[in-house]
## 1
Amino acid sequence: MKHSSRKSRLVAGLALLGATTLALSACQDSNSADPGTGTSASGGAKPISVALITKDNNNPFFVAMQKGADEAGAKNGVTITKAAGAKDGDEDGQVKAIEAAVARGDKGILITPNGPGVNSAIDSARQAGLYVIALDTPPDPADTVDITFATDNFKAGELIGKWAAAQLDGKQANIALLDLFNDKVVSVDYNRDQGFLTGMGIDVKDKKKNGDEDKTGSYTGGKGGQYSIACNEPTQGAQDEGKSAMENCLSKTKDINVVYTINEPAAVGAAEALSDAGVKGALVVSVDGGCSPGLEAVKDGTIGATSQQYPVKMAELGVEAIKKIADSNGSDKPAVTPGLDFFDTGVSLVTDKKVDGLDSISVSEGEKLCWGK
């Protein structure tokens, strides 16, 4: 009888264990995602993951953009994976990051394209079902991505060009153009350069090509006068290369009194070269509007004026857009600004030397809006 009793208890125990195992299995299945619907069997939303791919990890502009994406991701329940090229212009690094996003199963990609070399990888990502948004730098052609959130870079250049022409008060303009690249064509590069020259009142011929304007002639901005272009030099958007670019210009002539720069790190480098060469009084203008080194340099007179853009806003809009697309199964997509092929995130001229008829904000006002603190 004792043997029979033990056997009965063993059978009962195995039955209980089997029931418990089945219950645990059912519980796990109820929390797993249904790949066909994008939701879990219990009704919860499948997590949304987005890749942010910037040009580099060093420029304060892109650091601010990364921070903005992280904050927007936390607010909207979106997982952000960050990647970047080794430096501005590193297309291969960005291509690898795009491929990683596809392999990871991300819902979308936010990218500041390093050049046309990333276009085919973006196309492959979109074919794989990812929604791709460009930030800051519209690709060429614009429909390479689903939409771009960016500064109107031509307008940004035009503002600092108008300011510089007014400051010259009719004097001869001896201009150094410190661009981004000389080995590839990127829209942010030619738009800022050509916008600056247009603001100066110089005929740029082809607005999508740097360097084809006449090297001497008349400018019509401000009171108008004569100009000469001493150089077009690449800076890669970096301070040390901005200094080297300015040194190359100064080796041709030290009569330079107007310096256009693609961004503020390049501007600070150019100012160092001007100081080392003993050149005083040159008007240095730029684009970005970061707290440091940008507005600090405007405040101390190193940079005369800069066009302020808003990278945090770009990142926030990008994250929110992909979240809405995911939540609406693709029906709630953002639209471009009327008359443009991108969504304009705004730009302001920042200077403490106001020009009549040209809208601008002071450095103190710009400090309330700046990034990279």
## 2
Amino acid sequence: MQTLIIEGYLAADPSILSAQGSGRKRASFRVLETTRFRKSGTPGERTTGFNCLCFSETTTEKYIAPFARKGTRVVIQGHVENDTWTGKDGVEHYDLRLIVGDIRLKNRREADGSDDQPTGGAAGEPAGGYDLNDDIPF
């Protein structure tokens, strides 16, 4: 399984969904990541959108639902899955989605001057055994 780590901003407020039958909560959201570059001296940028799905009910209820809003900066670790569906016109569509394993919400400071505390995280350590908040030693 391939692991992907992205950092970006929520494109809209997350959708909190309940699974049919079990009623378990999950979150669906889109993260935008912008890369800036220079081509022949001319600055440019490219924005990539990632469809994300969080199946952890604890993470959804305790972190995503109360704190994640449009524009919130997030760092997400997860794995990629293929998603296919057939449209109304009968054409089969393909898409990639990121299944969230760990999420860190990097909320901006509130107007009242409270500290900028990173919020979030699934229960336990990330699957890779590393912490996204560790400092890089160089």
